[in-house]
Design brief:
This protein is of the alpha+beta class and about 450 residues long. It has 16 helices and 23 strands. The structure holds FE2/S2 (inorganic) cluster and fe (ii) ion (FE2). Fe (ii) ion binds near residues 220 and 378.
């Protein structure tokens, strides 16, 4: 049906502009779920969310309710959250421990952690002579087609074919390397639980905002100014303001021209990196102590290499935004064409001193949580964009900023020096969207 009404999806996306229906048409949304989210590698969670056998965490992949579970064998698997009997979700809670097996609350079919059938009531008397049987795959909980981990971060793909996780992530793997390498023990662990926010806007509006280097000094200027005033007052009084004020004041002190000094790197599959650093390597005693612990673990030279990585933000298309130097991760779960869930997580660097964790927590609360003005201002923009795009006030979304000036290199499109606010990341995401949506299958 849709194929007749939308004969050529590629026509919705031009290199420098996109039709508004891409954000507002429910049928295009259904196709996106089928061709993108239920096909490519989607982040499920961190393995530390399910440390013990039987621990599970539910997760939405496209339109599919899934669950991530730790087996008695230590393996982390991803299964459809659906009982093979009459279809009930196996886990109604968001997370928990299922014990030695899953037991469906409807008619008590039970399943091992890998989804295979364990037992059902009156197995012999009830099913003899029927098509039901252990050899019938329909009698077991269906697993995700593919599950892979990268440095403890678990991804699933719901189709058998396609690139490996490593191939799919490509250069964006640095999000996880940068985060984990900053831990003296080389690993991070999740800090339960996450914030969940439902945005009344299309999922792509959130993603396009993540590397939109022009908006912080506009949208967040008022918050930044207020924080800067207080920061200066404290400084005058005590000689030094807490670093947390800098996390907010940077939105006012890093003006548009300064954002242009940073750079975005745009990779295949829609992934993008924003370089730049918000002055998070001060010479305060906490940082110096952390550097000492790092040097003990890695040596002076390698510590410098790790702490010198110059990344502010990595966007992993189509559903992950990672701020690795501050151990922040936001997962995007589309719920409908105009409804998007974001899960906002942060992590602890294993082996790092407590004040360094406190720094990540401060950024989590001050910048990414639903209670901060930063997040609220972004959410209002997203909602207003969705409302405007739903109107007849225009057909196109503009991604013209610095179009034609980006530097194309093999495997990467870089913004030109001094043009860091180029809308190259949005163009790159829509290029990937177009490729996924129109790929031969
Ligand atoms: S629906 Fe699960 S046992 Fe019947
Ligand atoms: Fe923002």
């Amino acid at each position: 049906m849709l194929h007749e009404r939308v004969p050529d999806l590629a026509k919705f996306v031009e290199p420098d502009r996109v039709r508004r229906e891409v954000y507002t048409d429910p049928q295009i949304f259904e196709l996106e779920m089928e061709r993108i989210h239920e096909r490519v590698w989607i982040y499920c969670g961190h393995e530390s969310q399910v440390p013990k056998p039987g621990d599970y965490y539910t997760v939405q992949i496209g339109r599919q309710p899934m669950l991530m579970v730790r087996g008695a064998d230590g393996a982390v698997r991803v299964l459809y959250n659906r009982c093979p009997h009459r279809g009930s979700m196996l886990c109604g809670d968001r997370f928990g421990n299922t014990g030695e097996f899953f037991r469906c609350s409807y008619h008590s079919w039970t399943f091992h952690h890998d989804g295979s059938l364990r037992n059902i009531p009156m197995m012999e008397s009830g099913y003899a002579g029927t098509r039901w049987g252990r050899d019938n795959p329909d009698c077991h909980v269906k697993p995700a087609a593919r599950v892979e981990r990268y440095r403890g971060f678990v991804f699933a793909s719901l189709v058998q074919d396609g690139p490996t996780l490593k191939e799919f992530l490509g250069e964006s793997r640095i999000a996880f390397d940068d985060m984990c390498d900053r831990a003296p023990e080389g690993e991070v662990e999740v800090v339960p639980n996450c914030f969940r926010v439902i945005q009344n806007s299309n999922w792509k509006i959130f993603l396009e905002n993540q590397l939109d280097a022009l908006h912080p000094s506009v949208t967040h200027q008022s918050t930044g100014r207020a924080a800067h005033d207080v920061e200066l007052a404290i400084e005058r009084k005590t000689g030094r303001a807490p670093l947390s004020y800098h996390m907010l004041s940077a939105f006012a002190t890093v003006t548009i021209d300064k954002w242009d000094a940073f750079q975005t790197l745009n990779y295949p599959n829609g992934h993008c990196i924003l370089t730049g650093y918000m002055g998070l390597r001060p010479r305060d005693p906490d940082t110096l102590e952390y550097e000492r612990v790092m040097e003990k673990a890695y040596g002076k030279q390698h510590t410098e290499e790790i702490l010198g990585v110059n990344i502010h933000h990595v966007l992993i298309y189509p559903g992950l935004s990672v701020q690795s130097p501050l151990q922040q991760l936001r997962a995007v779960r589309p719920l409908g064409v105009d409804r998007t869930l974001t899960e906002i997580w942060h992590f602890r660097l294993k082996g790092a001193p407590e004040p360094i964790y406190r720094r990540a927590l401060a950024y989590y609360n001050l910048v990414n949580s639903p209670s901060t003005m930063i997040n609220a201002d972004d959410l209002e923009n997203f909602w207003k964009c969705h409302q405007g795009l739903s109107s007849d006030g225009g057909d196109w979304v503009s991604f013209h900023r610095h179009y034609g000036r980006d530097v194309e290199k093999p495997g990467v499109v870089e913004t030109a020096p001094g043009l860091g606010t180029s809308e190259a990341p949005m163009r790159n995401q829509m290029k990937a969207w177009s490729q996924f949506m129109t790929a031969e299958r």
